[in-house]
Fold:
Amino acid sequence: MAGKKYHLAFTPELVNEPITFTLAREHDVVVNILRAEVTEHGGTLIMDIAGDDAKIDAAVAFLRSKGIDVRGLERTVVRDLDRCTDCSMCVSVCPVKAYRLDRGTWEVQLDRHRCIACGLCVDACPAAALRMDDVGPRA
Ligand code: SF4
Ligand code: SF4
Structure:
């Protein structure tokens, strides 16, 4: 089930809160953590929340009620297959493994649902086959 991606920033007091457990149990959504960073100043998460739109909205409202800064990720990567040479540079740089090299066909495959719009692959692609694009407004 494809969901919506969000960037969460929270204070040190919230680092040990069971946020994903609470979201799943009380809001009936499926949460997938794509990236997590925690420092003494707090933490950030990139998460995919899947479920009914109303339930996702309620889950986001819950997060905000806890004092978490929640922002929707509105952009994703787009590949021009006519330009792509399957060189695999994007496979190497992507921090969330959105690309995969098929060892049977030696073609690079992209799962856009994993993309967190960091832009690293766009800068790394020697064929200029990648660009970022809007995927629509998010809450
Ligand atoms: S870096 Fe560019 S050319 Fe190379 S596989 Fe990725 S999209 Fe294709
Ligand atoms: S922009 Fe490219 S490198 Fe960054 S997450 Fe998306 S696919 Fe991966």
Remarks:
- Residues 77, 93-94, 96, 98, 115-121 surround iron/sulfur cluster (ligand 2) (CB under 6 Å).
- DSSP finds four helices and eight strands in the chain.
- The chain has two domains: 4-72, 75-134.
- The mean pLDDT is 88.
